[in-house]
């Protein structure tokens, strides 16, 4: 019987540039393989093969998806084995804590023909520069969108009853944690539930909350206190001793979009666009921040301003997606250059060696 599979992101192209949480997701791992090699050298394929093989034997796995290339992986974690394999090439460079003792570098460059690549040197340098420039433009577009989003938030912040917002948070915390006090230190892990991708925004909320008994869907508007509430709930979970998963916003990583506390079967998340979901189980519950904390009639009073801001925000988000698409096209061209110079039999052998070493941990 196959093991469980969790899907999430650990890095992404955000309004604050490329931002990653690899330090958090690798915390506590005792065996880490860091893959080195250019685009098209088989990193993602290696990750998928080893992940699938161990999962089919019953091992639980965590798949870390690539925001820049949907369908590709940045890493895989085997939580029960305290082991993981990660793409360690830029921009997600993993700093080793104990090289050799914990982390092991895996050079996929063993499989390439350096003479062939040398013949494409100028093309590689040009494509790398073009790809980097497109990512920079995407980050700039998202940064501009965040500035616009701040104006959007201000309308609702200026019309919020903060006492009601604080009381609502306190009531939820009381409901969730008043009966829980675990005699241990909480383990907190930080991840992304979604990301801006060349195909638009993606998320894994349904997968991540699939086996969680109680789900709270937070509804509201920008600036209506959703992230603040989630941060308070994460802090309360940590104080109770419960292990806590904190999922950051793929657009602004300073914000939090979801908190999961599996030990007590609770998930609470921002359920507004671009990750809007609606209750579908009897135990699902909606928490409406707009109804509970914002002055009635705010939407109507500021309708024209909100519409203008929303349109400008969407324009910049679409522009960011466009630049990610261009970066992906350049990346695909780079992959073709490297694939032509690769001997994948060597990569297959490396894959089998890594898989065997991880299985030996069992």
UniProtKB/TrEMBL annotation:
<protein>
    <submittedName>
        <fullName>PRK06851 family protein</fullName>
    </submittedName>
</protein>
<dbReference type="InterPro" id="IPR027417">
    <property type="entry name" value="P-loop_NTPase"/>
</dbReference>
<dbReference type="Pfam" id="PF07693">
    <property type="entry name" value="KAP_NTPase"/>
</dbReference>
<dbReference type="InterPro" id="IPR011646">
    <property type="entry name" value="KAP_P-loop"/>
</dbReference>
<feature type="domain" description="KAP NTPase">
    <location>
        <begin position="19"/>
        <end position="193"/>
    </location>
</feature>
